[in-house]
Amino acid sequence: MTRTNRMLSALLLIGFAGLAGCASDAAKESTPPADESATPAPAPAPDLAGSSWAVTTIEGDSVVAGSEVTIAFAADGQASGNATCNNYNGKYTLEGANLTFGPTMSTLRACLEEGKTAQEAKFLGALAKVATWSIMPDDGLVLTTSEGKTITARRG
Q: How far is CA 41 from CA 38, 44, 45, 46, 78, in A?
């Protein structure tokens, strides 16, 4: 190798090393420094999709003994269940802590036992007014209406 070729090789090597150093500095400048004092992000809220619940109270009143009121949330945005005497279904929309139900359809069986007709009407009326939802520390579901009234449920 001649002296000129060695000089040229050395210059090329120095040039490539310099470019690599610049690229490394540019990457460092575009990456913000880690903030070691930052708190970790909160865990995401659980999703209702795929969950089923047995209602325990409607607007502060316990469910009538011997009756069953349920809510199931499907992944496709459908809610369904038993309103007391009749099955119902309809769409729900979930956006963070906000939850709303669209119009529901239900079967038309008569409630013959005392208190069940009133309970079913109260439940479907409250469901139509739901505005928010939350999970309690005991894993219970609380649906709160725009009027501040609640429907509570346990996993079922």
A: 9, 9, 12, 15, 30
